[in-house]
Amino acid sequence: MEIFILGFFAIGYLILAGADIGVGMLLPYLGRDVGERREVIAAIAPFFLGNEVWLVATGGVLAGLFPHVEGELMGGPGFLAVVGLLAAWIVRDMGLWLRGRVPGARWQAFWDGAIVAGSWGLALAWGTLLSGLLLNISWPAAILPALAVAALFGTHGLAFASLRLTGTLRERARVLSPGDGELRTYALTGGALAAVGVLAGSGLHLEAANAWLTPVILVLIPFLVASQAWVWWTFRHRVTGPSYL
Fold first, then answer.
1. What is the model's pTM?
2. Residue 179 — pLDDT band, cuts 50, 70, 90?
3. Closest by alpha carbon to 7, among 61, 78, 56?
4. What's the N-to-C CA distance of the chain in angstroms?
């Protein structure tokens, strides 16, 4: 049961947050000017904080139920990937929160760059970490598989953007989704990210500790899923203008 709980949170994060990471990676392609970039960011604005909760939950499950696995990930080459992930996470979120706080093209361009750099950093850090677990290799040998995982994040972001945007922005995003295949493309890229996560996790030595935490986590899961479903339902319509970010 504990293994399924860890997989639920980790794969949920890869699928949900993988979309906003991918959108951030491709911000210069999707948004060609300040107004377009604001609209692209509005596509992920209601979701990215809720998506990050899944990563926090994954870290909590690791620390509480699988402390030895946390030690494995934080030791050796994995330590650099985790540090890079946290640094990129901070940079990306700073960009999202600060880009609209001060008027001015230079200010917004700087923080748009932070969003792009942080998103690429997240994708590459996850690619390094997952490929290290899957192939038992470390940097720099992991650079090619890390780039492959980053490309998967990017395609997942394109699929998500095509579901959220309208007009010219939607046409740019649906380059990989001809016809009415946007939802199908999103499902395929999400399934691919889930498969990578499952395969990488299969290489871990998962022996649960502190089993008394399991009922507590099981009680909390329905609330997390319900809140996520509420957010998706509330913001289910396509974006037609900038958001509070």
1. 0.92
2. confident
3. 61
4. 39
